[in-house]
């Protein structure tokens, strides 16, 4: 590993100042992704600015009923928060489905959101990869792509975003607070991530010196409280998703869909908010036929490759199974 300097930031502005104008500097959260990438030679920073000692480790209510989660909160602490387990079950379930207990003890909210793709070519510096080395090509298209994207990809990259947590946040409608050289700003989680387009080297719209300071959840509604996260993976634990769904459902007294929230994981460069399926379901009866119809509408735009075509059916089945479970005895 290339030698690097290490500094502990005392305040968010200090962290931003240390990274600004230093292309070789990186923020360090729990290090569970960044340090792995340094060992592989994918990342070779000359300065790590530790942001885990900032005053960003609280989970607190905000005016109007939402919740603000500091970017330094560890994934284990967030998953265990009793208020969030009741108000947003899909969030706790998504966190607990990821990595291992030891990793979740280290991993932070900010680091989880900005973890990099697990595409095998991205992690192997002996191979071309447009994301790691722009213009070098995308061998995944004709090579190993079983775990890669079926929605929103480009000819330049078919990587998927690996975070389970981000999928739940997309379904919840969370927002991300950022401070950077240009000041403070807030954006929706669904606006944080980019499609790969012609420049897959950038995963998000953030600049390198933008520090995530918090994630904010909206007030908990029926489709937040009646929600779940389901993940399909090759092993029962300690494995990234092959497909996943975060879903929430609020029914009217007549058994129709009043509010529905659906996001898919492991299918795109970003957590995929299934807005077409949501629109197709709203106001419709909560029946298995309607759930299937909506899932089909969402996946109609899929452009799978030979070895990941199974993800189309898998994602549809995840949506239908999640909604049936949420509707319980009321689904016909
Ligand atoms: C074996 C293994 C299995 C795993 N399985 C899963 C899984 O099933 N599901 C899943 O979702 N994840 C999984 N993970 C990934 C894990 O969740 C991430 O490694 C972790 O969440 C990253 O958080 P961190 O704080 O350690 O980030 P770091 O590694 O410290 O940082 C990651 C990136 O975020 C940047 N960063 C950190 N904090 C901030 C901030 N506040 N503002 C701006 N930038 C910041 C860093 O510069 C870096 O680029 C797994 C990891 C391993 C090693
Ligand atoms: S899919 Fe993206 S990350 Fe993977 S090899 Fe292609 S360009 Fe690189």
Automatic annotation (TrEMBL):
UniProt keyword annotation of Oxidoreductase present: yes
One Pfam family this sequence matches: CO_deh_flav_C
Annotated FAD-binding PCMH-type domain residues: 1-222
Presence of keyword Transport: no
Alphabetical UniProt keywords: Oxidoreductase
InterPro entries noted in UniProt: CO_DH_flav_C (IPR005107), CO_DH_flav_C_dom_sf (IPR036683), Diverse_Substr_Oxidored (IPR051312), FAD-bd_PCMH (IPR016166), FAD-bd_PCMH-like_sf (IPR036318), FAD-bd_PCMH_sub1 (IPR016167), FAD-bd_PCMH_sub2 (IPR016169), Mopterin_DH_FAD-bd (IPR002346)
Protein name from the UniProt record: Xanthine dehydrogenase family protein subunit M
Naturally occurring in which organism (per UniProt): Kineosporia corallincola
């Amino acid at each position: 590993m290339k030698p690097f300097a290490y500094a502990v930031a005392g305040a968010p502005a200090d962290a931003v100042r240390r990274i600004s104008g230093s292309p070789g500097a990186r923020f360090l959260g729990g290090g569970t992704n960044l340090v792995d990438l340094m060992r592989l030679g994918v990342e070779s920073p000359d300065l790590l600015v530790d942001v885990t000692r900032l005053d960003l480790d609280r989970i607190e209510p905000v005016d109007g009923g939402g919740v603000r989660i500091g970017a330094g909160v560890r994934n284990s602490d967030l998953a265990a928060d009793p208020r969030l387990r009741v108000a947003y079950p899909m969030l706790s379930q998504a966190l607990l489905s990821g990595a291992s207990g030891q990793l979740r003890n280290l991993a932070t909210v900010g680091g989880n959101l900005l973890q990099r793709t697990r595409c095998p070519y991205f992690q192997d510096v002996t191979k071309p990869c447009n994301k790691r080395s722009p213009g070098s090509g995308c061998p995944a298209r004709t090579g190993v792509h079983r775990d890669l994207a079926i929605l929103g990809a480009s000819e330049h990259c078919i990587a998927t975003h690996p975070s389970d947590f981000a999928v739940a946040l997309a379904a919840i409608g969370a927002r991300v607070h950022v401070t950077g050289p240009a000041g403070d700003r807030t954006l929706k989680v669904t606006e944080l991530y980019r499609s790969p387009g012609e420049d897959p080297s950038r995963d998000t719209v953030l600049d390198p010196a933008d520090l995530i300071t918090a994630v904010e959840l909206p007030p908990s509604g029926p489709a937040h409280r009646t929600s779940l996260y389901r993940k399909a993976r090759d092993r029962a634990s300690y494995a990234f998703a092959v497909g996943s769904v975060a879903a929430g459902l609020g029914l009217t007294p007549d058994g129709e869909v009043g509010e529905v929230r659906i996001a898919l994981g492991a299918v795109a460069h970003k957590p995929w908010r299934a807005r077409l399926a949501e629109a197709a379901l709203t106001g419709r009866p909560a029946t298995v036929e309607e759930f299937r119809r909506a899932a089909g509408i969402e996946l109609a735009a899929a452009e799978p490759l030979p070895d990941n075509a199974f993800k189309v059916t898998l994602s549809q089945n995840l949506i239908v199974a999640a909604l049936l479970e949420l509707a319980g005895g009321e689904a016909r």
